[in-house]
Amino acid sequence: MMEAGMLLAGALAVPLGMLLACLWPRALNRMPSWLAFAPIPALAAALLAAQDSPLIVGSIRLHLTFALDLPGALLLGVAALLWIASGAYASPYLQDRPNRGRFAICWLMTLTGCIGVFLAADMVGFYFLLALLTIGACGLVVQHETPRAWRAGAVYIGLGLLAEALLLMGFVLLAAEIPGDSLLIRDAAAALPTSPQRDLILALLIGGFGIKAGLVPFHFWMPLAYSAAPTPASAVLNGAVVKASILGMIRFIPLQTATPGWGTALAAAGLFAALYGVVIGITQRNPKVVLAYSSVSQMGIIVAVIGMGMIAGDGRAALAAAFYAANHVLVKGALFLSAGVIAATGSRYLWRMLLPVAIIAVGLGGLPLTGGGLAKIVVDGPLGDSTASKVATLSAVGTTLLMLQFVRSLANTSSRDPEATAAAGLIWPWLAAAAASLVVPWTLFLAVPAGTLPDPLAPAVLWKALWPVLLGAVLAIALWRWVRQLPRVPAGDIAVAMDGATKLALACGTAMERMDSTLRQWPVAGVSLLSLVIALGAAMFAR
Fold it and tell me: What are all long-range contacts of 386-390, with beta carbons under 8 Å and residues at least 24 apart?
């Protein structure tokens, strides 16, 4: 096994070095063709680096610490796979498109920040790399430079800065509670349960990471950003980048110590998002927007698992949430990449392309023997037999319905040329991501010691996973008959309402400004003053 420090250093140094190489114009022009190579060292680190073997960069007094724990290695590995597939997809996708160099710069900034967040073991490094990730991701969102993209980018960066402001305040308060001069995340999490500022710190952390995770009502950046970004960018933003918030919750919140009040609140918020995402998602027609609302729902389930762990003081919820998130990374990445493939495919070849899409899409609802089915088994433990488990089952029905709606809307975007086929450079990375979404969850599941989890082939387990999928499929068929009668909720739902409120506020402000300008004129002011004096005098005599 290679030295862990070298592997961790390579995981960060390669994308960062490629980013710095973009200062050279010749390298910048060729960089889109090399994007798939940047995450390979991160994949090697996830597979080979020993856990808890830190890499310290800097002096004794001022340094950054990087290390891998099990949830971090799990998410880093699957995220690296998605970054590799999406980077390979991006190379042909960007051909003959403007601003290829800027795309490569923003891509490498986002990749460096994403890998860095998964590796960061201290609060300074975590915060700095999270900010780098946010800036790079915003550049990917506005890549097309359309009014829709600029609006999505503004919403994304605005909520991102709000989340990071909350996290910064939480980190500062945490730093004051750590004995000595340590800024390590594990020391901060250990100091949190006994801190007199515990509730305030938890509120700041949950608020900041909750915005990053897309919890309702701060979810509206997801449909706006993911639908505006280029297809390979949407894949990594939805699949990998958003998981930084989940890893942040896992690392900063001490799940081994029960905090029932905050756990209940977090679980309730997650379960509400799980249902809300489905309800709004079925009203959408754009397949990328449907996927975005599905992610609102799926991120809600992951957050609910963490909340249930907080209620019980069960540290195992961290690995359950990480496993569920890892499956979501690969599935959603593959589904977003399919959008570009199907758009370039004609009716003659459409169904053979839609078949793998349908399998992994329905798998997200828990179809037995898929990664989604295994993920449902893993989170059954933290959810237990409580109300949360029943809501999660209802969410599985809704997710199946929503994913079939996605497949239907995706088929409607196919090429009008019946003989059209997508380029091989788009098809193979997509198929690789789809295959990984089926194979990797099984590889991880089989690595768990026997007897720890239920047997996924047991008849009772198979039926428990299958009936919500069947019910969701029946509801989907019924929905297709009434789909035109559903209300058309605009993408971003709450953001659209906020736009209306903003316009009303501006109109009221303009009206008040005009009234103020009129009242400041001397004749009007004199008449107003005289009227006021007469009114006061009449009131005095009336008494």
Answer: 386/308, 388/267, 388/271, 388/304, 388/308
CB contact at 8 A, 441 and 447: no
> CB 344: neighbour CB atoms within 10 A?
17
Q: Which residues contact 170 (CB under 8 A, 6 or more apart)?
A: 201, 204, 205, 208, 252
**Residue bearing tokens 């509801």:** 475
Paired sense of beta strands 55-58 and 63-66, if any: antiparallel
Burial class of residue 211 in the structure, from the number of CB atoms within 10 Å of its CB (0-12 exposed, 13-18 middle, 19+ buried) = buried
Instruction: Give residue 117's pLDDT band: very low, low, confident or very high (50, 70, 90).
Output: very high
Torsion angles phi and psi, residue 324, rounded to 5: -60, -40
426: its two tokens: 């788009």
Interhelix angle 371-383/387-411, nearest 10 degrees: 160
Give kind and range of the element (H or E) at residue 57.
strand 55-58
Q: Which residue has the tokens 């605009």?
A: 490
Residue 522 reports pLDDT greater than 60: no
- Predicted pLDDT of residue 529: 57
Task: Report the C-alpha gap between 108 and 18 in whole angstroms.
Answer: 7
Tokens at 68, concatenated: 């891998």
- Which band of pLDDT confidence, cut at 50, 70 and 90, is reported for residue 98? confident
Q: What value does the mean pLDDT take over residues 337-357?
A: 91
> Is 122 strand, coil or helix?
strand
As a whole number of angstroms, the distance between CA 356 and CA 334 comes to 10
Tell me the C-alpha distance between 543 and 540, whole Å: 5
- pTM score over 0.70: yes
Distance (Å, whole) CA 70 – CA 49: 11
C-beta separation of 71 from 319 below 8 A: yes
Q: Is 374 helix (H, G, I), strand (E, B) or coil?
A: helix
